[in-house]
Design a protein that fits this description.
Strand content: 5-15%
Shape: globular
Strand order of the largest sheet: 1-2-3
Number of domains: 2
Distance between the termini: 62 Å
Helix content: 55-70%
Number of helices: 10
Structural class: mainly alpha
Length: about 280
């Protein structure tokens, strides 16, 4: 069962709230992709287009007369910020109320952050596009496509739609096709070098995974150990109340257990009848 984006696992009479994603794994992915992006950006800045860039450009320029060229050219729409904005607005209309706020917040932060970092990188790196005097590293279309597919996979898993292996596998294949299609389209139209689109994939991956991790910390709470929120009974919620100086814990069976930090006087000073029982 999923509630407010956190998985509720039931067993042994309790339900325990966990994070949706494995935090150490996603943290590692976010860091590695960011480091790889920074290394690639540094190499691109200090040198001109690489031989692999020129080879990829020659290949796509020599393939302009293929029958499906119009499909490849139009595939770039899946990385268009305007198109993605419309699609995400429509998707947000069918997202559950519990996840709607996080859904909107994720894409606002990830798309805006990815776009801002991409534009900053264009200025800092200063690489020109192959057939255009405009700045080209990284490819903004591939950044947007990567953020969109990771975000949709993340919320699809949170919502329970992609928890079956077949649904998850097919969604992953579709996501790879979308991102690679956008990357190929940008090279096919001579809008970017190969390393431009690779940089866009790395930056989009780093931004999307980092944003998902930030939402998970916000959802579960800062300082909470991973997956270690207090257990809750599926029959009767764990309730705590303070009555005067007495702290009462209501257990699943309905039997209160009392722990008093300030015991009453009757427990400190027993009645005389208990000290001197009658013969």
């Amino acid at each position: 069962m999923v509630a407010y984006g956190a998985v509720i696992s039931e067993g042994s009479g309790v339900a325990v709230k966990h994070r949706t994603i494995e935090s150490p794994l996603w943290s590692t992915v976010a860091i590695l992709t960011l480091v790889a992006y920074l290394c690639l950006a540094t190499l691109v800045k200090v040198s001109g287009p690489f031989s692999v860039d020129r080879a990829a450009r020659n290949f796509f320029q020599g393939s302009q007369d293929i029958a499906v060229g119009w499909v490849i050219t139009g595939w770039a729409i899946f990385g268009s910020w305007e198109f993605l904005t419309v699609i995400l607005i429509l998707v947000s209309l069918v997202v559950s109320r519990e996840m709607k706020r996080e859904f909107v917040l994720f894409f606002l932060l990830a798309l805006a952050g990815g776009g801002a970092l991409g534009q900053l990188s264009k200025v800092v790196v200063g690489r020109l596009r192959p057939g255009d005097p405009r700045l080209g590293f990284p490819s903004g279309h591939t950044v947007a496509a990567m953020v969109a597919v990771i975000g949709l996979l993340y919320f699809g898993y949170r919502g329970g739609l992609l928890r079956r292996p077949l649904a998850w596998a097919s969604s992953m294949v579709g996501s790879v096709c979308v991102v690679l299609g956008v990357a190929i389209s940008r090279m096919y139209t001579d809008s970017h070098w190969l390393t431009d689109v690779v940089g866009g994939i790395l930056l989009g991956g780093a931004v999307a995974t980092g944003t998902a991790l930030a939402l998970e910390r916000r959802q579960v709470g800062f300082g909470k150990p991973f997956g270690m929120l207090r257990a809750v009974s599926p029959v009767e919620p764990l309730s705590r109340a303070v009555h005067g100086s007495e702290f009462i814990v209501q257990g699943p069976a309905g039997n209160p257990e009392s722990r008093s930090p300030n015991p009453e006087a009757s427990t400190l000073h027993p009645q005389p009848s208990t000290l001197n029982p009658e013969p």
